[in-house]
Amino acid sequence: MHPEWENECKRLDAVKQVIESELMHRRNKTNKYKKQMREINKEMWDSVGVLSGIQTIDETPTFIQEVSLLKRNLSDASENSRRIKMLERQLNSPYFSRIDFREDNYGTESFYIGIYGFRKEDTGEILIYDWRAPVSSMFYDYEPGRALYDSPSGYIEGELLLKRQYRIEKGKLILVFDSSIAIEDDILQDIFARSANNRMKTIVSTIQREQNQAIRYEGKRVIAVQGPAGSGKTSIALHRAAYLLYRHRDSIRSENICLYTPNGVFTEYISSVLPELGEENLYNITLTGLTEKILGSTFKKYESFSEMMELQLLHKHTNKMESRVQGISFKASKQFVSVLEKFANVFENDIIKFEGIRLGDHFFTDKKELEELFYRSYHHMPLAKRLSRMKHLITTRVKEFEKRRKREIINELSNSDEYIDASEIKAISRIKVMRELEKINRDIENMFSINIRMLYRMLFEDSEIWNTCGGVLSEDARSNTIDALDAGILCYEDQAPILYLMTLLGMIDPDTEIKHVIIDEAQDYSQVAFKLFSRLYSHCAITLLGDMNQNINPVSGIGNLRLAGELIDPESIEFFELNKSYRSTLEIMEFASRIIPTKTISFGRNGKIPEVITGITIKDVCDLIVDYIRGIENEKFQSIAVICHTLNNCYQVYKHLGNNLSVNLITGRDNEIPPGIVVIPSYLAKGLEFDVVIATVLSDDEYMTDEDQLFYTVCTRALHRLEIFAVEKAEILRKISVSF
Predict the structure, then answer these.
(1) pTM given for the model
(2) Contacts of 459 (CB under 8 A, 6+ apart)
(3) Each residue of 471-482: pLDDT tens digit?
């Protein structure tokens, strides 16, 4: 037992007592808010009778005051409810560490560090420091000895005398441990040996020094974090967001941070982390979600990354898919960035044509005036803004003409010998003028509007334009694009390019609501996508996280995070490289290194050696999987994933397993991952983790050499067990030797 055990127990009891008191106070406030809201609602209903005899809103000051009071009360009640949840969590585990620090020329002070800070209401004394507080960084960054931290008033230097760690569960002190490194290995071993459920957990108590540096860094506009599977990249992303919300609480809210995720399954998986840290979830979006938000009904169907992957894996040997893959590769390249930029220039100087607009002898504008406006008067504006300004100018003239023309017609009809009712005269004049101006209005709309779908189509259809812009694609690949566009489908590989073209034309403004962008799994985005991000978020700080070895679609993904950062801002980028993996056992990481050799340092947790188990047919393989799962039932694993190459494979496996076991199929349409056994396609499993991974290989051409990164990603989803179930003829078996 630790020599300070009794003192630490007393201190914990004292802190819990203060937290319980604050919790009781907050719960009483809840009852007070409920009572106040009932009273306000009653007064508002009483005011409704008065409102029935009032004509204007200005005559209802009491009602307006009551609405304002209700809004304020609801806001206060919501904040109080949030604080109650935090206090309840805090009561369960108030803090996880303590540091003793002697500032130069001052005395020694003890700092207890927890997920949330806690300050006594009456005295202002800080009993617990938030893990994000400046002083807390010393726990993660220093061993006992000379240390410093960056405070609002500058660097504070001194001597770190003690680092102590605690495990507190359900309000009880379980473990006290003094350590000379940030997180003692024994504690890490125990934490990482626990089971995974269907939600990502916080890592506040186990943040490592290199992770902490990435979380807190704010020196340059772009930071890129490269790290192997299990190195905590997504955790860094979310804890960095929490840190930024804490540090810039007066200027940044959760909706001001945009998090790009690969799919809805992943978004749901990480959804509990920030609330556990006391923050609201961020503005989460996928590239496809962004495209659909901007383009709306322009297309009937927006293909997701997962849908593209399924088609690519399922039909990879067909001629049509080979030509599409050629297109995917080119549309992801730096060369296509150049094509789009040249095309925007060609559109401005060669494609746009202006003609005079007239009705009979009346000229609204002529070609010379329009060219003067476009190329000179408004030339400082983005192209789309120029057209919009010109459209407004000419439309105003048309409306003025419309008014005059209506008056002329009304006068003609009023002075005619035939009797016509005044209201009928107005209707006739309106209809007649509308018909006269129908073509004029249509011409204005066509001349000053950009049909982005038709314009993007023109790039691929017009060979002269394509060649002028430097395009390099086969006729088949270009035809594939045109066919999809004509069918109202925007393929995934066309989404970043069409949005980038829109930014070049000034059709999309930089997003001023977003102040920080976090892009997880950044290796899977194309060079065109990063050029899009550079324009769309031109005033934002950006965090990139990824692993070149998990670039599951090398045809389209950039892979290299340093290059990705340079595409956004080559003048202001900081690169962090992680080399430790904390997720999988040593044996699993050694197995994965046969697929892709890496320099990853595995956190030395030992486990069972992965096995390769073969059957003759798919049914044989499924029977073997059923037997295996039944054989490990007593080991109480919380999450078991059967990961198949494609969704099509998943349906086959699910159908067989479902007759024997309680299994859930993950297709991407249902975002939540239920606990227990799931069957999931390879590309949807990225970023997730499971206690047990059963990787299936059901045909001889699955996970060939060009899919090494995909297979590596599948294998590194496992925390404790990895087994490969394959048909005997599978080509991948030649690469992987069964024994260690």
Answers:
(1) 0.90
(2) 339, 343, 465, 466, 469, 471
(3) 999 999 999 999
